[in-house]
Design a protein that fits this description.
The chain is built from 10 helices and 26 strands. It is an alpha/beta fold. Helix 3 packs across helix 4 and helix 5 runs parallel beside helix 6. The structure holds alpha-L-arabinofuranose (AHR).
């Protein structure tokens, strides 16, 4: 099949906010314990951080990481996770039916982030707690000193404030599964009052209100409308969460999720802007897609809950295959193409728990298939997103009525002169002849790199024993002439073309 992709240097969607390449660390299963933190591991540093996981995280390239949950957040007391470790209480975690030892907490996470040059994104518990604990938490973290809580942080070894800029006001508060679930009016009010207090403590922070937990919630749309009606003036972002499923076991259908994600974004923009219109406000609420990934294989009750109140059990350790990596690539393309409104996003999660990185306790760490599109997007996604005009044959599916075989985004960095094309060929049997025109971006272009992620088996996975089964390779069938690039893309492939 043949497809065409045209961009023009003057037709810009927006500067790409690097925060869209975020991930998520929740106190759930083995994400923290035996994931990023395992003091007895042979490769742990003096603070207990696994160096092999740090190295892989560096390669993955997240810019911001959300913490400490997730559903865990809605029952969490931040005070349990600070101060001398031997004095920290063990608690029942009612979200994941585990025992939380609190050996890892706020300051450990901050130090881990700083070591990797990653921005922390924190959440406050609006399930079992409220404005008072939230303002105390911001004071502990961000106030310079001279008050009981800021001096407590200094006593805990952190003289300088953490200066955490991005805060989530609770997690998935519309979900029946959520500890302390609320109606839209209840949540909208508490989000407003909490936001006011948190901003009084530190006016420089940015705040995200909870949107719908999924695109399919019964209260979808109405929830965002009511919540923003209450807290519009005090928040900067509304959150979106989505987990892609391949329930029909059809790759072609699975790809339709990428289009649904685009629709989700555009619908929430419309709802947020209609609230703005009602309020006669020119303020624009931005989108924080702060949980997204493929997740459906490891979703049984046995994956979500182990008997006997264990610590760090194996929960939702989804093993990712080729088609999952392609869908993750398509989701990244979608978010880049919506760069004018999607300003933050977090691949959920980072390690073991639906993670791009897997570990064994005391053992190895390796990259899952979805690691690659994310690391490449983060590595090459710098600059401004150009408006892609696409001509491509399409197909019809149940998940979405019309799906173009070509899914693509173009990011151009005027600072370096590098233009990168991210492209998915969603045709499963035919190669794609892709003709690209980069108008006005220079006539003497050269090809820096062309990489593809492809496997003839859509169910192929990376394991500890065979960690490179699905891995990027060079695509030698790409050529550049003047402003034009021609590329031959394999069926069912994710591609990255880097030019200067
Ligand atoms: O990421 C796993 C869980 O999915 C999170 O804790 C929750 O927010 C979502 O439902």
């Amino acid at each position: 099949i043949a497809s065409r992709l045209v961009v023009d240097r003057d037709f810009v969607v927006a500067d790409l906010d690097r925060r869209v390449f975020g991930t998520f660390v929740e106190h759930m299963g083995r994400c923290v314990y035996t994931g990023i933190y395992e003091p007895n591991h042979p490769d742990a540093d003096s603070r207990g951080y696994r160096k092999d996981v740090m190295e892989l995280t560096r390669e993955l390239g997240p810019t911001i990481v959300r913490y400490p949950g997730g559903n865990f957040l809605s029952g969490y007391n931040w005070e349990d996770g600070v101060g001398p470790k031997e004095q920290r209480p063990k608690r029942l975690d009612l979200a994941w039916y585990s025992v939380e030892t609190n050996q890892f907490g706020t300051n450990e996470f901050i130090e881990w982030c700083r070591a990797l040059d990653i921005e922390p994104m924190y959440g406050v518990n609006l399930g079992t707690r409220g404005p008072d604990e939230a303002r105390h938490f911001v004071e502990y973290c961000n106030h310079p000193g001279g008050t009981a809580l800021s001096d407590l942080r200094r006593e805990h070894g952190h003289e300088k404030p953490h200066d955490i800029k991005f805060w989530c006001l609770g997690n998935e508060m519309d979900g029946p599964w959520q500890i302390g679930r609320k109606t839209a009016d209840e949540y909208g009010r508490i989000a407003l009052e909490t936001a006011k207090l948190m901003r009084s403590v530190d006016p420089t922070i940015q705040l995200a209100a909870c949107g719908s937990s999924t695109h399919e919630m019964a209260t979808y749309g109405a929830w965002e409308d009511r919540v923003l009606e209450h807290c519009f003036e005090q928040v900067d972002f509304i959150s979106l969460h989505t987990y892609f499923e391949n329930r029909r076991d059809s790759t072609a259908e699975f790809f339709g999720n990428i289009e649904v994600m685009d629709l989700f974004i555009k619908e929430i923009v419309a709802v947020a802007d209609s609230v703005a219109a009602r309020k006669h406000s020119s303020k624009r609420i931005m989108l924080s897609f702060d949980e997204w990934n493929v997740w459906y294989k490891a979703r049984s009750i046995n994956d979500l809950r182990k008997p006997g109140w264990p610590t760090a059990p194996r929960l939702i350790e989804e093993v990712y295959n080729t088609e999952d990596a392609l869908v993750v690539g398509g989701a990244l393309i979608t978010m880049m193409n919506n760069a004018d409104r999607v300003k933050t996003a977090c691949l959920a999660q980072l390690v073991n728990v639906i993670g791009p990185i897997m570990t064994e306790p005391g053992g190895a760490a390796w990259r899952q298939t979805i690691f690659y599109p994310f690391s490449q997007a983060s590595k090459f996604g710098h600059g401004r997103v150009l408006k892609s005009v696409i001509e491509s044959p399409t197909y019809e599916a149940e998940t979405f009525p019309e799906i173009a075989y070509l899914c693509a985004a173009v990011v151009d960095d005027p600072a370096t002169g590098i233009t990168t094309i991210f492209a998915l060929n969603r045709h499963l049997t035919d190669e794609m002849d892709l003709n690209i025109e980069l108008r006005g971006l220079g006539t003497e272009r050269t090809l820096d790199q062309a990489l593809e992620l492809h496997h003839t088996n859509m169910k192929a996975v990376n394991t500890r024993e065979a960690p490179l089964t699905v891995a990027p390779a060079v695509n030698s069938r790409v050529s550049v002439e003047g402003e034009k690039i021609t590329a031959r893309l394999k069926p069912g492939s994710w591609n990255v073309i880097v030019t200067t």
